[in-house]
Amino acid sequence: MTASEAYLDFDLEDSAGVQSAKVIRLERPAPCGESPGGVVFTRPWVVDLILDLAGYRADRDLAATRVVEPSAGEGAFLVPIIRRLMTSASAHGRSIADVRDSVRAFELDASSAARAIDLAASELRRHGVSADQALGLAAGWVRVGDYLLNSPSAGRADLVVGNPPYIRYDEVPSASLAAYRKMYPTMVGRGDIYVGFLEAGLRQLADGGVLGFICADRWMRSAYGSELRRMVSSAFGVEAVIEMHNAPAFESQVSAYPAVIIIRRAPQGRVIVASGDATAGAPSDSKPLANAITALAEGRRQAVPGFTAGVVDRWFNGTGPWPSLPPEQLVLLRRLEAEFAPLEDEITGTRVGIGVATGADRVFITTDPAAAEPDRMVPLAMTADTRHGDLRWSGNYLIDPWQRGGGLVDLAAYPRLRAYFEQRRKELQSRNVAQRMPRDWYRTIDRVHHDLTGQPKLYFPDMKLTSHPVLDLGETYPHHALYFLTSRNWDLEVLGGLLLSRIAQMFIEAYCVKMRGGTLRFQAQYLRRIRVPDPAAIPAEMGERLRQAFRSRDVTAATKVAAEAYGITDLTGLLTN
Predict the structure, then answer these.
(1) Is the pLDDT of residue 205 over 60?
(2) Residues near 286 by Cβ (< 8 Å), separated by ≥ 6?
(3) In the list 58, 277, 282, 549, which could disulfide-bond 87, CB 3.0-4.6 Å?
(4) Who contacts 361 (Cβ-Cβ below 8 Å, separation ≥6)?
């Protein structure tokens, strides 16, 4: 079976395990837009946007479409679904019997389910259905139950839509979590339960079926979303991603980093990417917002209040993170990724790495130059040494237990080093690395690569609001809070100008999971995603301007010159970040 085939059907071999799992009790978790102690509803304009993007429109014969709502709550999606369904049924001459199997909604909480049934019945009565028929139909549509446990036996769906629960893995009872993870292998790591809802919804889709959710978008970039991203790229096509971190998507303010995602069980095609700001909402002309965003993305419309949008011709494969950028920058990113080589490159001899982790900085780092023999004292660059944009060594040394070529030095040959370590032996031996390798109790976690000290390199502090490359001419060794870059072919000041630019920073912003306050992580995995021109293709005059921008720490100048090197003519959004 291929990877793609593995995602096309449920594995029903564990049906006994599914049945036994039904006895597990789980308090109803909070949806993406729900705050502790109360329900926060998805705004109607967001529901309409999702339904329209998914193609669930009243001008179609919706009685022939089977829609599933995995977490009905009190009807935020269910009622608009029924409204569209009944409008469609009237227009297409459909009877009540024709729509009995058109809707299925799950709700774990019995009181919320009862409220959803009442709201559904009320909506049916507004369309001329008798009270008894309305209540019977609504009760048949809404089921009290756990969607994750029941969806394998619920049949195929043409549309799975809604706002799935949002709850951290460590807040789910262990028995429930074990049952979920047995059924949904994408639920890995320290993830959220909505990952399981995404997998379950995708698995339930019929050929050509669509999933439309609003939920937290962290799975698109985090490690715990890696298997879900693999699943999507193996057997499904992303059709739209609309970031709504700042948009008023819910009736009350929440901090769930939401996005609308539209995924179809079909080959991957082009993708609409959009972003909503604090002014986002329903259009004043009452026309479908989905149509307006699509037209904006395709360049057929100049503006949609509250939104920016674009079209990406190719999406992302495998387990790698999906970038998070404003639409116009995402389109640019995809072009640069297609046209330029990665920063780390064997051809140019460019390498990205991380500094030494000791496992006991209090022991291995000192400002006393006489703590051990001179050849055991390595000047160590710390994050604080790079703060001003040039390297200002603070006098810290790494006490080095490694010999050149690998292996630990013989302490008998270094009496001062031996005395230093013996005085701190208890602390060193308590470390995990020492307990795993008792004979190497005085080792650092990472081996020291002595040639690195004398190599010119660029340092990147791990956490920074903006790209901050700093040149070391070959005088220090990096601490583990610093990432470094060495190169055989690049003039590091010219490269430093490129990496100082907002264009280089765009790659980091696209892929890293931002910390509070917008702090970026300049880790090796993200630095390697930066694309750069061929150094041989950069004219000497352009290289000199990059060098001067790097030396003066002029980000605007560096960005403008870098744009020339990349062939970028429109810097919209890049110089104002």
Answers:
(1) yes
(2) none
(3) 58
(4) none
